[in-house]
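Quick note —
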Amino acid sequence: MRAHHAFDPQRFMTPGTHPEDGYGRFLQSQLREEDAAVFVAEQQGAVIGYLFAALEPISWKDLRAACGFIHDIAVDEAGRRSGVATALMAAAVDWLRSRGAPRVVLGTAEQNAAAQRLFEKLGFRRTMIEMTRELS
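Predicted structure written out below.
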C-alpha cells in the first residue's frame, strides 16, 4: 500500500499510520471466501511475502471473461530476487488452474518495472492500461 501510494499519491489510498491493520483484516475476511486464497512465504518463521488471488466471474464492465486474478503480491526487500515471488506466483497459478480458471489476470503499477519484468518472465503479457484523471 505504501509503495503504491508513493508511486501515485492521488490514485492510491493514503496508507495512514498502520495500514497493515486494515489490510490484514481485509485479507482475513478473504480467507472465509471459497473462491479466494492467500499464500504466504516464510523464512526462519517470519513472513517475507504473500499473494492474494481469487476466481473472478465474468465482468461485462471490464469486457473480461471469468478468470483467475492475482490481486496483490508483496515480498519483503530481504526476500527479493531469491525466488520468493516466483514460488508464490506458481502456487497461486496452480491453485487457480485446479479450480478451472482459463487464464490469470493481474495489474501492476506502471512505475513498478521490476514486477513487470517478473510477470513477463512468468508468461504474462500486457493487455490493458489504466489511466486516471483527477476531478478536483
